[in-house]
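Late entry, written up from scratch paper. The run itself happened at the end of the previous shift, but nothing got recorded in the book at the time, so transcribing now.
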Amino acid sequence: MDIVSATILLILVLDPFGNMPLVISVLKNVEQGARTRVVLRECAIAYAVLLAFMFGGDKFMHLLRLSDNALAIAGGLILFLIALRMAFPHSDAVHAEPGDTGTFIVPLAIPAIAGPSALATVLLLVSREPQRVLDWVAALSLAMLATTLVMVSAQRISGLIGRRGVIAMERLMGLVLTAIAVQMLLAGIQRFIVQLPR
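Output as recorded:
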């Protein structure tokens, strides 16, 4: 996987368009001038968490004695389930209390941005090719930049394309992520079969 593919994968997993309604809801009663600062702060916290998991994830794997193949298969399954939720959304998503103006870390930074799927993805990238960690940092940085721009402009984008447009965008991203998740799952299974004793 190259940097461009990893960046696209991370953008799909971070799901900035799917998080737009949450951003609008959480910041509804926050002053217009402070909204950008809040979003930038939350995105910076999420980025720090993902970076920490990226650099410390291999130690976590060794501690639990997890193989790369197990992580690849599990990561593919998790991404597949996340993709299904994006393509067929339901009502148990993360929501903020109406009028909550004191948002800090929860729910925007964690779990909306740096959720289980994003953490599993960065861990999977590093575990498969640890020698390319700087490439994965670059991909995460680009993905977070794109996510931040979308979330800062959430109100404006929502006004331009409407609620139906946001839903259509999220479902399209879910479809693409489904294909990526299946490919990751098949690759993990294939490597597992090849390593079986003959």
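Residues 3-194 form one domain.
(Scratch paper discarded after transcription.)
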